[in-house]
Design brief:
By secondary structure, the chain is α/β, with parallel strands linked by helices. β4 (about 105-110), α5 and β5 form a beta-alpha-beta unit. The strands form 2 sheets. The protein has a 6-stranded mixed β-sheet, sandwiched between helices. α3 crosses α7 (about 160-165) and α8 packs across α9 (about 190-205). It starts with 5 loop residues before the first helix and ends with a helix. The protein has helices at about 5-10, 35-40, 60-75, 90-100, 115-125, 135-150, 160-165, 165-175, 190-205, 225-230, 250-260, 270-285, 290-300, 310-315, 355-360; strands at about 30-35, 45-50, 80-85, 105-110, 125-130, 150-155, 180-185, 215-220, 265, 325-330. Helix content is about 40%, strand content about 15%. Bound molecules: pyridoxal-5'-phosphate. Pyridoxal-5'-phosphate binds near residues 156, 189, 192, 290 and 291.
């Protein structure tokens, strides 16, 4: 049978009923791509997979949460939805609200949104409000507005979002036949790490997996409140999707990290960008900067020489890592969303005259 979206695929695990209208763009069912070169960089017998969430309808995992959040908002009789966003939530909310015929208001930190994401929100007819402040300020404003007006909040503070997002863990177990040993994931507002952990636990409870993975969360060094265990007043990172100083799901993420015997660590912007380029060049997978944080984290964790203090490296030394580790990295959003990033990589096309000679010269064949 053809794919009908995550609500229909995992209906019995989701807070939906017979009467819930199904607002879907057929999100989910994203590829779990084996990464051979990355696997070899980790260990000779490691198997690393990329859960490519950029292949969702609006190009990020946010669609999994949004199909449920918008369906439930419609069921409850909402006429309008609102969210604060570092970009992808607004792109997703705008698309699903358009599909549902709901008005959509999005509050964005002015000047800190990747170009593709802004275009998506505008093109789907959302009312885009650029706030002169960061994401955390925008989310505070959203909560304040929603307290006094009948607009449904579709940020990940809305539990329906977490419910939808947990289906990515289901798909991974369905594809591998078992949960991975390690799950690496970028952490911004901390909703997704919370959702994956919930998904893995529920699937194990349902007898679909025998083990649970260790959740390995990575924040950008300049926006790492969970790692430092303190809010960051002025979060800064090239990875705008995780530029968050006071995550909404902070406590739930801490529980996921503790229960899974996982860890939270940081990666620098330099490591993020280097990994983004490495993935595109070596695995053919172009992801946005925030998404590269999970893989950058894996590379950092596996490198015993460069980071001797890293808990994972200590485990490598103590041989606590299973003989053939199965590792999944969520790559959260598509590289196309943030085309301006090429400027950071200092790459551009060579321009030549329209002659064969000039082309051959540019190819190094003249
Ligand atoms: C939203 C987002 C994140 C962060 O997820 P949280 O649930 O906020 O931790 C990471 N990467 C991308 C591309 C995102 O859109």
């Amino acid at each position: 049978m053809s794919w009908r979206g995550i609500l229909e695929a995992y209906r019995s695990f989701l807070p939906v009923g017979e009467k819930t209208p199904v607002v879907t763009l057929l999100e989910g069912n994203t590829p779990l791509v084996f990464a051979p070169r990355l696997s070899r960089r980790i260990a000779p017998d490691a198997k690393v997979y990329l859960k490519c969430e950029g292949l969702n309808p609006t190009g990020s995992f946010k669609d999994r949460g949004m199909t449920i959040a918008i369906s439930k908002a419609l069921e409850r009789g909402a006429k309008a939805v609102i969210c604060a966003s570092t970009g992808n939530t607004s792109a997703s909310a705008a698309a699903y609200a358009a599909r549902a015929g709901l008005a959509c208001f999005v509050l964005l930190p002015k000047g800190k949104i990747a170009r593709g994401k802004l275009a998506q929100a505008l093109m789907s007819g959302a009312q885009v409000i650029a706030v002169k402040g960061n994401f955390d300020a925008a989310l505070d404003l959203v909560r304040g507005v929603a307290e006094e007006h009948p607009v449904a909040v579709v940020n990940s503070v809305n539990p329906d979002r977490i419910e939808g997002q947990k289906t990515a863990a289901f798909e991974i177990v369905d594809a591998l036949g078992e949960a991975p040993h390690y799950h690496f994931i970028p952490v911004g507002n901390a909703g997704n790490i919370t959702a994956y952990w919930k998904g893995y636990r529920e699937y194990k409870q349902a007898g679909k997996a025998r083990r649970l993975p260790r959740m390995m969360g990575f924040q950008a060094a300049g926006a790492a409140p969970v790692f430092y265990d303190a809010p960051v007043k002025k979060p800064e990172t090239v990875a705008t999707a995780i530029r968050i100083g006071n995550p909404a799901s902070w406590q739930a993420a801490k529980v996921a990290l503790a229960q899974s015997n996982g860890l939270i660590d940081i990666v620098t912007d330099e490591e993020i960008l280097e990994t983004q380029l490495w993935l595109a060049v070596n695995e053919g997978v172009f992801v946005e900067p925030a998404s590269a944080a999970s893989v950058a984290g894996l590379l950092k964790s596996a490198s015993r020489h460069h980071h001797p203090d890293c808990p994972l490296a200590a485990e490598v030394r103590a041989s606590l890592i299973p003989a053939s580790p199965i590792i999944v990295c969520t790559v959260t959003g598509h590289g196309l969303k943030d085309p301006d990033i090429v400027a950071h990589h200092k790459m551009k096309a060579v321009t030549v005259r329209a002659t064969k000679g000039a082309v051959l010269e540019a190819m190094g064949l003249a």
